[in-house]
Amino acid sequence: MATFLYRIGRWAFRRRRLVTGLWLGVLVLAGVAAAMAPAGQEEDLSMPGTESQKAFDLLNERFPQSNSQGAEARLVFQAPDGQRVTARENKAAVEHTLGSLDGGDQVASATDPYETGAVSEDGTIAYSTITYTVDAVDLTEPTKSALEDAASQAREAGLTVEIGGSALDSEEEPGGTTELIGVGVAAVVLVLALGSLVAAGLSLLTAFVGVAIAFALVSALAVPLGLTSTVAILALMLGLAVGIDYALFITSRFRDERAQGSEPEEAAGRAVGTAGSAVVFAGATVIIALAGLGVVGIPELTKMGMGGAGAVALAVLVALTLVPALFGFFGRRVLSRAVRKATRRGSEGPHPVRTGLGTRWARFVLRRPVTVLMIAGLGLGAVALPALSLELGLPGDESKSVETTQRRAYDLLSEGFGPGFNGPLTVVVDTSESADARAATDVVVKTVRGVDGVASVGDPVLSQTLDTAVLTAVPQTAPNSGETKDLVDAIRDAVSGVEEDTGAGILVTGTTALNIDISEAMSDALIPYLTVVIGLAVLLLMVVFRSVLVPVKAALGFLLSVGAAFGVLVAVFQWGWAGDLVGIEQTGPVMSLMPILIIGIVFGLAMDYEVFLLTRMREAYVHGASPGEAIVNGFRHSGRVVAAAAIIMISVFAGFIGMNSPTIQTMGVGLASAVLFDAFVVRMAIAPAVLALLGHRAWWLPRILNRVLPNVDIEGEALGRHVPASAGKLDIAAPQLPVGRH
Q1: Pairwise CA distance, residues 430 & 427, whole Å
Q2: What sign for the dihedral angle of Cα 538, 542, 544, 545?
């Protein structure tokens, strides 16, 4: 691999105008495609195969005139203090408000609270349910404006009116400016780490090119592939973070090669052949982990994984081709000021490497490996303890800011009708195989009413063909509570006997039940997915480092960093610690998708730092250095770069915490904390301490594995021995050099 990438690096350097022109052409074409493509639409979260999703599909089939997952709004009315909504003037105001909505283009129906009994026992709160013929994302601006205008009319009459339901959800765009702060921090770190504005700008420029292409492609494919704004933001987040890091690693190696006296073209080739090999491996691990999210079975998660994987793949390609091409344009300005001064004075040959903080830290760890290991391990373990209380769920109106009308409507309904009213359960009865459809439906109603925890059960609604009945059960507890989850399980257990007796098919669904089903599916898939990811990490690292204990150490360290990240998520989003700093006003369960998504992303990012740090260690070890000297050498050459890369990635992820989206906020907190723990605690402290204690055993590989495993030469040993004279020409078909085994 190293020889092949070496040739690519030299070719890109020599053909820099062609390479740069090709990438600019791709950028323009992607931008034009995005500009011409129709805007994408948000889609409801679904999970095929679950009971709740089967029920939604059945409702769409048996009630074709309605949309089971269509938009719905609730106008919640509260009378002024000391009055009732049933008072004549208040009742007139409510009826006038609802009358203004009647007959709207997309309005299917608007219920009268006085006819349906949707008035609280104390008479102070009432609500009307407005159903629409289309999904929330398909509601037109005039339709939403009519709803808000109706609420304004009632407010002018003296009533308190709030709007709940899904009708206004599509108005919430995940905006914010904090991501720009993250990019600004990344730029400052690049300048400090590289000592050159040109080198820092090169890394940012190439990252922006890759991100712009990825974002444009996601936008262009949004409609045909059903990609949502969350997919685009994840692609932006990941592409920006890894794009800057990958460019930084290759630029840093290029500067090292130039400082050692290599000619520019040769330095570009060696940088891509060595650091580029690590970039390819690190990028491949992220891509595999993200693409593997498709096995979970949630379409939205699959799309997020594929979108993120595509952005990372583009970042790798840009780093391997555009970065060395720009080396040719910027010349000596990529080098630090000290190196440029030395070369102007006529100093030739390698320049001495100063003893930096990384070297001093490595020597400190070598002197006290047990102490460092105990402090770092116990510290991460303590941070991970809250993860034992991890609860999964999906955010609803209760998680929104109290400044929003949806949250205030939620609170009013809870006050007037009980906490379970905001999470009703829908029981679908398929009576097509029953001898007596009405009798079967009556038995289901009686059974559901008898389940503990059910506050009320509405009258069943029958389809036109009388083969399906739908009834609504209101829990006594809030939608995201553990008691409601138990209630869903209890109802399903209770009606299973009815199915056998009547021949009817009974399914429990609704938004609350769907969220519960998805959360359970995520919990069930977490351990298998984690097992696959860990197994993949051990296998790939065994191939790269030709060691058994190094991959095991890396996998255990990955578990520590992920566990600590989950602990932070629980502390912030469930317990409310530091909630004000990240804009969390209401605590609740951690989003169901987050654990698996974070595992998939962090796995690849953790391997980034493992590979870039340990590659230099192994490179020194196979050339005769002692285990301790190899550790110091790794930190001398890579410690500063890895630290800078980690700070950049943390800044980029943290910059997305301020966006108005629970999904993006949770990802930002989880990924920023995971990278912090993995880079600075696991890779910078635990890894060298363990290697110091293992000594030569760290690099041991059984003979049988040494013969079986392929040698990918990620440290570029073949380049150190010999490079073909024709390597400057890109010849994909040329045979690779034989690589010896260690």
Answers
A1: 10
A2: positive
- Cβ neighbors of 453 (< 8 A, separation 6 or more) are 475, 476, 477, 483, 484, 486, 487, 490
SS (H, E, C) 511-553: HHHHHHHHHHHHHHHHHHHHHHHHHHHHHHHHHHHCCCHHHHH
Alpha carbons 164 and 412: distance in angstroms, whole number: 10
pLDDT, tens digit, for every residue of 418-433?
A: 989 888 899 999 988 8
Q: How far apart are CA 24 and CA 205, in angstroms?
A: 12
Place of tokens 């690099």: 699
Instruction: List, in sequence order, every residue forming a beta bridge with 473; answer none if it has no partner.
Output: 425, 457
Tokens of 501: 């007796």
Long-range pairs, 723-727, Cβ under 8 A, ≥24:
723/3, 723/6, 723/269, 724/3, 727/3, 727/6, 727/7, 727/10, 727/269
Q: What is the DSSP letter of 701?
A: -
* Pairing between β-strand 392-393 and β-strand 590-591 as defined by DSSP bridges: parallel
The predicted structure's pLDDT at residue 738: 36
pTM score = 0.79
Q: Cα-atom radius of gyration of the chain, to the nearest Å?
A: 30
Q: Which of 546, 615, 535, 565 has the alpha carbon at shortest distance from 285?
A: 535
- Coil vs helix vs strand at 157: coil
Bridge partners for 472 per DSSP: 426
Query: What is residue 584's three-state secondary structure?
Result: coil
| Among 728, 627, 604, CA closest to 678 | 604
Contacts of 10 (CB under 8 A, 6+ apart): 265, 266, 268, 269, 324, 727, 728, 729, 730
Alpha-helical regions (H) of 120-159: 141-156
Neighbours of 59 (CB within 10 A): 21
Round to the nearest angstrom and report the end-to-end CA distance of the chain. 16
For residue 675, give both structure tokens.
Answer: 């990278």
**393 closest CA partner among 572, 571, 520, 566:** 520
CA distance 228 to 307: 10
* Amino acid residing at 564: A
Q: Choose among 182, 176, 178: nearest CA to 229.
A: 176
pLDDT digits (tens, 9 = 90+) for 173-189: 455 556 677 778 878 88
Structure tokens at 249: 């690693």
- For the chain, 742 residues long, the average pLDDT of each consecutive 10-residue run is 86 92 94 81 67 83 66 89 92 90 78 88 91 77 88 91 79 55 79 79 88 90 78 84 87 84 86 85 82 77 87 93 91 70 54 68 93 94 92 75 85 91 90 84 90 89 84 88 89 87 87 85 81 80 85 88 92 84 74 83 78 83 88 86 85 79 82 91 93 92 85 66 46 37 38
**pLDDT at residue 689 in the model:** 95
Here the tokens at position 547 are: 């060691």
Q: Which tokens is 692 given?
A: 């110091």
